[in-house]
Amino acid sequence: MHIDHPEQAPAQQRLMICVSADLSQRKLIQEGARLARRLNMPWIVVHVDLPASGRRAALRELEELAQTLGGAFEYAPGDTVAATLVKYAREREANTLAIGRRRSRLPWRRSVAEAVSHAAPELTVVLVASGACTPSRMRSTDGVDLSQAGDAVYAADSRDAALLPANGFLIALLACLATTLAANELLRYFATSNVVMLFLFVVVLLALRFGRLIGAWSALLCVASFDFFFVEPRFSFAVSDTQYLFTFALILVVAVVTGLLGARLRHKARVATAGERRATTVARVARELSGAIAIEEILGVCCQTVAPLFAGRVALVLPDASGQLAALPGPDVDTSVAQWSFDHRQPAGAGTGTLNGARTLYLPLRGPIAPRGVLALTRRDGAPPLDGDEWRLLDACCSLIALALERSHFIEIAQSAQLRVEGERLRNALLAAVSHDLKTPLTAIGGLAETLEHPGALSEHERCDISRAIRLQTEGLHRLVTNLLDLARMQSEGVRLNKEWHALDEIVGSALGRLGSALARHRVQTGLPVGLPFMEIDAIAFERVLVNLVDNAIKYTPPGSTISIRAQAHDEAMQLIVEDDGPGLPQRDSEPLFDAFTRGVKESSISGVGLGLALCRAIVVAHGGAIEARNREPRGTCFTIRLPLGNPPPILEEPFA
Length: 657
Known about the structure:
Blueprint: E1 2-4, E2 15-19, H1 26-39, E3 43-49, H2 56-68, E4 72-77, H3 81-91, E5 96-100, H4 112-119, E6 124-128, E7 153-155, H5 168-186, H6 192-210, H7 212-230, H8 243-290, H9 295-309, E8 312-317, H10 335-344, E9 348-349, E10 361-366, E11 371-379, H11 388-452, H12 460-493, E12 500-502, H13 504-515, E13 523-527, E14 535-537, H14 539-556, E15 562-570, E16 573-580, H15 612-622, E17 626-631, E18 637-644
Parallel strand pairs: 2-3, 2-5, 3-4, 5-6, 13-15
Antiparallel strand pairs: 1-8, 6-7, 8-11, 9-10, 10-11, 12-14, 15-16, 16-18, 17-18
Helix pairs in contact: 3-4, 5-6, 5-7, 6-7, 6-8, 7-8, 8-9, 8-11, 9-11, 11-12, 12-15, 13-14, 14-15
């Protein structure tokens, strides 16, 4: 079986709201959510998790606000805000960024929005003010009119460039020149030995920022400048005092050591950032896959979450019952390569040592028990090759997908087993009940029929009693078979009603007439007031309900007891009550009595398989009503049926002739 994301579907636009760890960003989230609704696009909230970032309590409140408004809150670990936002926006395929309007604390530094606009001109950046503003026209960086999209939205100027050094050697030269000018002024107030520390401080800063090579270059420049401008004889590289040689050597050593430490710290920071990004991504994929049960849901997570991480499209190629991948053609998917990867449990295709001429990368989805399929990743044209961290991240995602597929497989097996167990339980209950309730009346009918074979030994009255007993046993057997057939039909086809407007007293009378001689040993009382409204019901089905309820009372009450049927209209509902003065219900909880093959008395000589009340509930619920059972005081059982009244048609009176 091959499932692939539709290639022809256009990439959906996404809005990314960029927030900091500040409760004032609540306004930004609210305005961004409103903008996303106006533009009809999905949106996420992103916080750049810098190494020194804090205020986790504020971030949790912002995350709760985003989830309340229907968005997702995600953390993007990184070293710099602007570069991380650009990289994360490209990974999540977000083409619009909403950033809070805030001026830089340093006048010579550019804002985050300006840096993002310069680094990624293809992104639309909108600024959201902290206060309420209503500008007459609002445009994004690509010229799209946003004046109707929300309040306080301004365009960011993408022409400004971010402060990103292009040449470390040139910056070191300029920094050395600036330090020389500053030292020339400081010599009026401080000794030459104190000015040396200023040069050393600049060397340390440059080494930490650009590494040991630029640190060594800046150290040479600073030493040369200090020697040329401030060491006697001035404006000459000659050294009159040998102690300055030690100073020069010390500055060089400090610069080299600092450069090594800075390079090591940057490397560790990159490793930590990559590891945190990988862990965050794996956690997000695991969270979304944890709620996926069907294969279509797992595929949706792969296409919407996994595919953007690797700048491509994702397809799942799954095996059939025989373990062979279905040879269904799909875009960029070669089932023969996928079959090789599935059989050998090794990656194949682009970027691997096997069939690397293919455009698509095929990765086996290895589950703990058996392989579950192949993940086909087709990257966009021009995408850079996967590096080590991306390979590890992709392998972790494949493991999570394989676990999700294996969970889905075993859920299907568990559901199938549960259905088989339930069917087996019902079959055993049916056989146990029917074997008794069919055998008993058939035995009685056979014995009575055998008695009638000798008419000379029987009086006329005895023959009538025997015929009546045979008829009663036949009627009971007929009701049992009818209930079984009706229950089977309702479970397979549902309850089909032919509802018409009927008088309730007519249906009650018809039900009592069907029971006939079965009521001979009981007293029946009816309380049906004159003027009861008509009911829109299926007369045949509802008659079956009354027959089953009265028959249930006949079975479980002794001869001579009273069965009462009452009805009243109350609160736009018809309430029908069937009660008796028998022993009552054997248990307080009456709900299990309405389940199929459930009886009030487990072992009893009373005939029945426990289908009558189950049919009653199915029919009443199909009419939009409810049925319940309870014990009466001081004794007896009461069944109450509530049905909606509806709007009965008016009764037309015929004029007298």
